[in-house]
Amino acid sequence: MSEMPLFEKKEQPEKKEEAPLPSNMGAWQRHTTGFGEKFMRKFGFEGRLGKDGQGIAQPIATKKRPEGLGLGADGFREATTLKANKEIAKQYNKNAGIQTEEEPKKKKDWWKDSGDEDESDESDDEENAVSATDSDVDNEERTKKKKDRRVFKTLEQLLQEQSRGEETDEVKPIVFTDHTGRQAQSRVWGENDLSSVNRNAVGFELVYNLESLTSLEESRLLQLGSKNRRREETKREQQEYAAKLKAQIDAHTEEIHNLEAIAQRVRGFREAAEPKDAIDVLVLLESLQIDFPVEYYRYKLQQLVPSLLQPALLQTFAHWEPLQNAHAFSELMDHVQDVLWLDAEEDEESRLFSYDWSDAPPKPRSDESHFVVVHAFTATVLPMLSRAVKESFNLFDDTHFANYKELLLTSRRLWDSTIVMEKLTKPVLQKIKAALNDWSLRAAVDHGFFFRTLLRFQTLLPGFESEIFPLFTTRITAFVASLPSLAAAREFISSVKPLYDAELQSARRSLFMLENAVLPQLARGLREFEVDPGNQEHIETFIETMRWCECVDAGVMSALLEGEFFNKWLFVLYSWMHQPSADLAEIVNWIEGWRSLLPPALLENEYVQRQFNRCWDIVNEVLDGKRVVDPRSFEKRTSYISVIQSRRIEEKEEMLRERLRQEARETSAMELRDAMAMWGEKNNVELTQLENRTADGNTLYAFGSVEFYILDNVAYVRSKTAEGAWEPKSMREMLEMNRQMEEDPLD
What we know:
It contains 29 helices and seven strands. β4 (about 700-705) and β5 form a beta hairpin. By secondary structure, it is mostly helical. Belongs to the TFP11/STIP family.
């Protein structure tokens, strides 16, 4: 008996002859370069569909997924679950020799017969709706997992299974994955007919044993290599950790040496025989910052400031006079700020040494250096300053004022406003108030110097505007009224007016009251002044009045002239122009002469320009021969007080009109009625039209309880005065009026 080879090569099946291709194939690309055919042949297309070119024997069923539905969502069953496609797949697998697991039969419900069950199965397979129960989805997932499960078997087990199936006609080759080497490899066992292998052949058992031993040794070598690699990795990690510990030990050793050096330096500073002042402490702390920057911020050496700086401050300011030498305090504060206080950039750098970056979220850091410095100065320097201000400060001493101003500005850099107000500002305000209360006209003092000196504190002390200005205004107006002449009053006001701060409302009010103290005397002089073109002997009275423009506001002076001078001056001009023998050139020279007596600032005032426009209207009336000027308007008696009051009313009305115009611009092209309707809806107020009711020919409306009419896109509301005049109001004002009327209907 001849020995059979271990493996035999299996004969390949003969390739079937392909049917001839149709003559019109590819006619669609007759006008191209054949790109479609070339492109399809790259993917294995040989002229016909199907593995053997047999074409499509049966059409494949499809089903549309609903719009917006993702793959696998809501249990949607794909086209592979359709009954027609299952039949095609089953037939294909059978032809290809692929074994498929039979689907588990559904449990038959006892109330259904076989016919109903078949119909339900067909309807489930053919439906296009997205519906499936949770149990169906779970069964499909379990079936899929079962199909995809990989089973690992030894070669011996595969051979045993193959030997049990030797009675079959054809033995398939076994494809398995070999994991014995460094890389997994796919191998084929049984490419030939394993049933023809003689297991008793010479060398079969030896080959098998050798392969088994080789596999075991390879496995053992791989395990040893893995152990060696893990051992090397552990060794490397331990070396890195040891190096890290060594670096930490070195850093801690250096840090300990630095701390010992710091302690020795601080100890030597404290044990020095000679007393130390504040500058010496700052020099020490600055040297620690430069030589040991990490330790200074990490261990917060600024906490040494109270114990070192407080005794030094007491030594430095032992014989200090704050009101004589404020520069020493401000200079020391400059050094303290440079050494101990951190700016924004330095504060960020210090956080690198003291901040724990493991904390989350990061918290804002406060400057502890500022706190300890404030504590040291509060305990030592602040009592000295407070005692000096309360006991020694002289309001009228220029040296004291200059040093107090410097002390106050420096103290605001160190302490907050509450401490400065309580310790340094209030005592001075009390001194000023006491001085004003003790002042009298009979006091033997320089009154001008007294008031000018007190005005120096208006911008320096925060409480001056509310606590001092009312009493100060009363005293200074009384002094101006007591002056013997207008010349003396003008000289005093001219010296005081530049000292007033125009930014303060109380200062502007005080200055206005000061000007009003002399206005009655100026008005009396203009009222008694006689305008006569033929007699200019008393012109000096008018010239003296015009000199007050240097210290009185131009608006007030224009009101004074309009109320006390211009009416009688225009009446004289009107009478002169209407004389038969009037010389026009002489009259024009007379007018220009009066204009030259007015200062330029007064000539630029709009109210003065109006009066000169009236003057030229009189001249033009005579030249044109038309009556346009009513001489009775010049005979009307007025006063500067009524003129000022009427101007204030005009200003308020102009402000109101401007506000209404602004609201009209904001509403754009929208009608006021529509805008108010929207405004009412927003604020729960109803807008209605009052039937058959008008006011001055205009339709009346009701905005809640407020009646109004609209004229030129402006709302007019009846006022509460006795005359009951209609006044323009804004929508906000009408809303507020409606609210008040609802709260108090009887109002």
